[in-house]
Specification:
mainly alpha
Length: 58
């Protein structure tokens, strides 16, 4: 049972990490769009990231 609990804790952590990375990605795109002085490295972002079906983890 201890092994299953540990696996679930790791899975939960990974899910939180993916969510946090997605929110960071979206925030960085917003910053680039509103601050012309930020470098774009020649990239043009024209497709917004998909919305998550759930909100941030508290």
């Amino acid at each position: 049972m201890q092994r299953e609990k540990r696996k679930q804790l790791i899975a939960d952590y990974n899910e939180d990490d993916v969510q946090a990375t997605r929110y960071l990605h979206e925030w960085l795109i917003e910053q680039r769009e509103t601050h012309d002085e930020l470098p774009t490295n020649g990239c043009v972002i024209s497709v917004p990231a998909p919305e998550l079906p759930y909100g941030p983890t508290e």
